[in-house]
Amino acid sequence: MGLDAYSICPCMMGKKVKFCCGKSVIGDLDKILKQIEIEQFEAAIEWIDRTIAKTGKLPCLMVTKTNCLLEVDREEEAVAANEDFLSDSPTHPMGLQQKAILLAMRGSFEKGVEALQDAIDQIKGTEIPSSFAQTYIVFGQFFFNQNESFAALQHLRFARVLCNEELRASSEQLIKRMESATFPLLRQPFYPQMNIGDVEWERLYMNSLRAIARGQFRKALQYLERIDSEFPDQPPVVEGLAITNMMLGRTDTQDAWRRYAELPSLNMAQKSEALALSIMTSIDWEYLEDVFNYAFEIRNFELLTEALLSSNRLSHNLADQVQESDGVPPRFVFSLFDRPFSVEEELTEEYMPAQNLTLFWIFGRQTDQEARLEFSCMGCDQEAIVAYLNEIAPGALAEEPTIKPHGTNFPDLQVFREFGVTKAMVETGKHRDVLERCSYELLASEWVKRPVGHQDVTIEEAITREDLHPFVYARIAILECMIDKFFPFGSFDRICDTIGMPRIERVDQKQHRALASSFFLGLVDLTALSVEELSSVLKRDAAGADGVRMTSFALELLSRDDRNKQEDAGHWLLAARGSHESDDTWKYLDQALESAEPGTEQEAVVRVDRLRAGLNTGKGDIAADELQKLRPFMEIPYVKYVVTSILTSIGALDPGQPIEQQIPKTEVEPESSIILDGGAAAPATESKLWLPD
Predict the structure, then answer these.
(1) Global pTM?
(2) pLDDT higher for 532 or 378?
(3) What DSSP letter does each residue of 552-620 carry, written as one string?
(4) Residue 2: left (phi > 0), alpha (psi -120 to 50), or beta?
(5) Which of 30, 339, 568, 656 supports an S-S bond with 3, CB 3.0-4.6 Å?
(6) What pLDDT, on a 0 to 100 scale, did the predictor assign at position 139?
(7) Least confident residue range of 96-105, 112-121, 163-172
(8) Separation CA 464–CA 483 (nearest Å)
(9) In 3-state terms, what secondary structure has residue 653?
(10) SS3 332
(11) How many Å apart are CA 644 and CA 522, to the nearest integer?
(12) What mean pLDDT, rounded, does the chain reach?
């Protein structure tokens, strides 16, 4: 079927051709698109140029031309076509979107990010073209390749909202893959605080939240900067500045988190998490140390290999399973440990090597170079490793090695790497308790000797100074992240106990609210809280809590047999509101509906959330069904307010009635009593509300 006046315009702005680039171009567009469909891109480009000569630089033609030029690897011409288009239409969102991709492709990534934000800022109205989903996915991948995992995930999560079903599935896969490769501290979905109370800067702050919801991360940052210039050092604002800088992958992120950590009103968990984030989002971690590759020419191959094979500090690895970067396999590979060991002995701490210092790679003589031994390590370890080699095989190696930079490493991992030594030691799980004991011994004996990263003080010294405790907790948090994939220590609390640090409080017993921030909440044991504590925190703190915390508390409470099951609907609803996974959200909403008492406000509020979720996740059939089922509940102020707001946003109010009479005058959503006990619903003004049949 050919293109007609009511087809979506190829300029990808989501409008029909008739109302976008005009009917006069439909015939030529139809032929161009048919050529593209059979991958005749060169022919399509020629036809586009002929059409431009007749009709001028219409957006649909210029956008399509740029795409076709990219398909045939004519990148320079694609850039020229894009620049030509923007010279006439400098604010066209698709032209700016293509500019963003071209800049990123050509290495100007930061400028590309700015161009993408320029593009999204030019979208008028409430709907964002779905074509932006693909661009946000592309930038998510770009960010991930730049080691900006938080910005990558934020772009992908926004793309997921815009996607059609096919793209949504691919974005979900990318998100899961990136999350699995990202440290836990950075994979959590940070979001600025929602509940800020009655403050002078509320309007601008809410504008920043709306901007984030539209993918306008830079505009959100600008709103927050305006607030900060007039009302400095407001905790929600300073935290928001740090988060939006992270969303944009800005280098200012580290300083923003440091500034947030220094605010006096923060609790210990918030300060510590902010410090940990300031470290992990830094381009050059102050805790990283340089790693070098050392290559020694081998003068006596037999002496060296015989000494290595007979050493009780080395484990002989399978050389055929590894290759050098140039594809030449080593003859031998050995792991060097910090102490002698014996797999023949019953494994005890005495025979438990604590560290794998390095790998020795032994290469035979090749056409263009002599036999050599290579290893990589941090500069501080090189002297001890060379001394060991000279001790077991004196004279086997040349005196001076070839040294090359080999990246950086987090030195804490040197303390905790490779506990197992060989799979035989732990394959039955028999020695897991020994491994765990060794890990905690290393915490208390070795790890505490490392610098805390403040005034050249060690962790051991910082433990005795309360003013430096946030730095210690931050280091524990980073350690927990770094070892997540290496060895499961268990809980944040146990590390604190081992090194003599006080545990971080989870709940303010007087105010009944959570103190721990998202990441720290994930590290502590929620099972230690009673049903009453969990319930009181949810009632007191739900409105202001972030999603991760809310879901964690709600699910823990719902798992308790001694809970008040009459409140289950509200708690399932809180779990759904805090979830950032679509499948989980719907699972929790289904549970909420099943738990709600039919015909009551409980059912009404659950159905309101299902209506919202249906619209947000593209499930229009569910949204339409929930809208009809909400008819009997329209006298409830909360329901009436929210449904009216939703219908207003999608243009579904009765066009024959003045809008002022149809929207309640309340500026704040009336509270629902199933979420917060004692929260009286605010009265709504009388108004006629039209619900579509």
Answers:
(1) 0.72
(2) 532
(3) HHHHHHHT-TTS-GGGHHHHHHHHHHH--SHHHHHHHHHHHHHHSPTTSHHHHHHHHHHHHHHHHTT-H
(4) beta
(5) 30
(6) 94
(7) 163-172
(8) 25
(9) coil
(10) strand
(11) 37
(12) 79
